[in-house]
Write a structure and sequence with these properties.
- The complex is a heterodimer of chains A (293) and B (321).
- Chain A has 11 helices and 2 strands.
- Chain A has a two-stranded antiparallel sheet with strand order 1-2.
- In chain A, helix 1 runs antiparallel to helix 10, helix 2 packs antiparallel against helix 3 and helix 2 crosses helix 8.
- Chain A has one domain.
- In chain A, a hairpin with a 4-residue loop joins strand 1 and strand 2.
- Chain A has 293 residues and is an all-alpha fold.
- Chain A starts with a helix and ends in an 11-residue tail after the last helix.
- Chain B has 321 residues and is mainly alpha-helical.
- In chain B, the strands form 2 sheets. Chain B has a two-stranded antiparallel sheet. A two-stranded antiparallel ribbon of chain B has the order 2-3.
- Chain B has a single domain, classed as ABC transporter involved in vitamin B12 uptake, BtuC (Orthogonal Bundle).
- Chain B contains 14 helices and 4 strands.
- The chains are: A mainly alpha (293), B mainly alpha (321).
- Chains A and B meet through helix 4, helix 9 and helix 11 of A and helix 5, helix 11 and helix 13 of B.
- Chain B: GO terms for molecular function: branched-chain amino acid transmembrane transporter activity.
- Chain B: Keywords: Cell membrane, Membrane, Transmembrane, Transmembrane helix.
- Chain B: It is a multi-pass membrane protein.
- Chain B: It comes from Neoaquamicrobium microcysteis.
- Chain B: This is Branched-chain amino acid ABC transporter permease.
């Protein structure tokens, strides 16, 4: 095959990866930025979203798009509820102490994973795409659904950006992120902002998972890779910087496909993880972040 | 209470525990002796972790790499080069110490959350490396060290490490050596320095202590202890696999130390033993032991952040080291 179509295909696949990754990482970044909590269970919220998408979409008979639409609505809500519950029951009682919350979210990771294994099983199960359209590109036809995923991710990210920068709720979040004590002193319900942000972060991961299940099957261990990749994206983009997160997701999503073509996937992961660790060691504010005040 | 009196009491307690464990070799039924052998080696791993997490206040999420460095550092020469057991035990410890030095120099540039993520990522790289060099390590499937490879014969004496009693006694020797070393260490001026760094790093720096050097020493010592446990584990139980380098083996020592009591010398043993028997007991009626690990972690951090012995020390026995 000539270089042109090959490159276009790799780019498109890379964009799909980047879109889902950006949504997932955005959730992680938001939680870290506002609450200073490293949510190790973030990948499990992603997995939970995928598993719920399967459960909801199989519950609906008829055209797959009905089930999918229902999943897109139900899965994030349920995951958000679960996140809210764990925030109220566990994280708040720990006063959001960074080290204690890491230990607690590791605990959540094991609990969610085991529950998924017990109730959902060890099989990978597919979810039907809501529609099946091929869009004819210059050299080949491409799945319309994958293009829809890219578009949906862009819309969701724009919505998140709009909420954060143009609404009262977003203002409260940014004030809390900037200085939670002063925010508290000015009467901002910091406690409720934290709860909302934690739920929102989990919901973003769940939406990303619902979008990806028609392409990738739902499996109880599927949260591992998104967690690691999200960490990488958030670190490269700068912990807590949303713009950096999106740029880094694009960078990683696009290069991931290309590196995997030339090297073995294990070596690619090895190099990527090692390099990111070095970024954190020598440039802790990330490539796009600003040094802490 | 005089310092001398408390000193005698502390040493008596630790030597007493070791004596009890020695007696256990002759009393315990076969199955439980096997469990105890494993627990003793893994408790050594937990003690190494405790030096860094409990005493120095550095939460690492990558200690599996030091354990696995010992495991592979000892296992690979035995398997591929036919080296003797004592020699490869040495290379295992050396591998762990060297790795700890390199990782320490890099990771200690970061603090807090970044330190946890960096150690986790380096450990992940180590894990992926063991998978990548499948030709030598056989990846997840691992290497099985045969009985013949695990025999020491000083002066014609044939000591097989697969003999249960020998295995138990060697595990106990390693455990006791590290336990007594830890006790000496944490009661020494250097141990006090580490605790002081944990409590207030800035003040220590202003008082003129070389904080970086102290922390690096702690990382290297911790790496050496963990690697000795890894090397012993591979040689005693005859299996070397990359599962031991996975993230789970970085979380487990954290769990054991939290359960037993961070910054207590005997906590790691108590925590490891307790967790082993909880899992052993519950696996009788459920396979969902990960759920238990998760619930245990959350309950511990919520209600017993000081762990079993930490709580005992706080409430009753203030002199417990």
């Amino acid at each position: 095959m000539a270089f042109g179509p090959y490159f276009l295909l790799a780019t498109l696949e890379g964009l799909v990866t980047a879109a889902v990754l950006a949504l997932t990482a955005l959730g992680l970044s938001l939680v870290f930025g506002v609450m200073r909590v490293v949510n190790v269970a973030h990948g499990e919220f992603f997995m939970l979203g995928a598993v719920l998408a399967w459960a909801v979409s199989t519950a609906f008979a008829g055209h797959p798009s009905i089930g999918f639409a229902a999943a897109l609505l139900v899965a994030p809500l349920v995951v958000g509820g679960a996140a809210l519950l764990s925030e109220r029951l566990v994280l708040r009682r720990l006063n959001y102490d960074p080290e204690a919350t890491i230990v607690a979210t590791i605990g959540m990771l094991y609990i969610i994973q085991q529950l998924a294994l017990t109730f959902y099983g060890a099989d990978a199960r597919p979810v039907q795409a809501p529609f099946n359209v091929r869009i004819q590109l210059p050299w080949f036809g491409y799945s319309g659904y994958k293009l829809f995923v890219i578009g949906a991710a862009i819309v969701l990210m724009l919505a998140t950006w709009f909420v954060l920068t143009r609404t009262k709720v977003g203002l409260l979040m940014r004030a809390t992120q900037y200085d939670s004590e002063t925010a508290q002193a000015f009467g901002i319900p910091v406690d409720r902002v934290y709860a909302g942000v934690f739920a929102l972060g989990a919901m973003l991961a769940a939406v990303a998972a619902v979008l990806i299940v028609p392409i990738q099957q739902a499996h109880y261990l599927m949260g591992r890779d998104p967690l690691l990749l999200s960490f990488i994206v958030v670190i490269i983009g700068g912990l807590g910087s949303l713009r950096g997160t999106v740029i880094a997701a694009l960078l990683i999503g696009l290069s991931d496909g290309i590196i995997s073509v030339f090297f073995s996937p294990t070596l690619a992961k090895m190099l990527a993880t090692g390099l990111v660790a070095m970024v954190l060691v020598f440039r802790p504010q990330g490539l796009f972040g600003v040094p802490a005040r | 209470m005089s310092a001398v009196g408390s000193n005698t009491r502390v040493w008596a307690l630790h030597l007493g525990v070791i004596a009890l464990l020695l007696a256990a070799n002759f009393v315990l039924p076969e199955y439980h002796r096997g469990v105890f052998s494993r627990v003793l080696v893994l408790a050594t791993f937990a003690m190494g972790y405790n030096l860094l997490f409990g005493y120095t206040g550095l939460l690492s999420l990558g200690h599996a790499m030091f354990f696995a460095a010992g495991l592979y550092g000892a296992g690979l020469p035995v398997y591929h080069l036919g080296w003797s057991v004592p020699l490869s035990f040495g290379t295992g410890i050396l591998a762990g110490g060297t790795l700890a030095l390199v990782i320490g120099v890099l990771a200690l540039r970061t603090t807090g959350v970044a330190f946890m993520i960096v150690t986790m990522m380096f450990a992940q790289v180590f894990y992926l490396t063991t998978l990548y060099f499948t030709t030598w390590t056989r990846g997840e499937e691992g290497l099985v060290l045969s009985q013949a490879m695990r025999t020491i014969d000083p002066a014609g004496l044939d000591i097989s490490l697969s003999n249960p009693s020998t295995r138990y006694l060697i595990a106990l020797t390693l455990f006791s050596a590290v336990l007594l070393l830890m006790l000496r260490l944490v009661r020494s001026p250097f141990g006090r320095t580490l605790v002081a760094i944990r409590e207030n790093e800035e003040r220590m720096r202003m008082l003129g202590y070389d904080v970086f050097r102290a922390k690096l020493t702690a990382v290297v010592l911790s790496g050496l202890f963990c690697a000795s446990a890894g090397a012993a584990y591979g040689l005693l139980f005859g299996y070397v696999g990359s599962g031991f380098a996975s993230i789970q083996y970085s979380i487990l020592p954290l769990l054991w130390v939290l359960l037993g009591g961070a910054a207590t010398t005997l906590g790691p043993l108590v925590g490891t033993l307790f967790m082993f028997y909880i899992i052993d007991y519950t696996s009788g009626f459920t396979t969902a032991y990960l759920l238990l690990v998760g619930v245990a972690l959350i309950l511990l951090i919520l209600f017993f952040p000081k762990g079993l012995l930490g709580t005992v020390r706080e409430r009753w026995l203030k002199w417990l080291p």
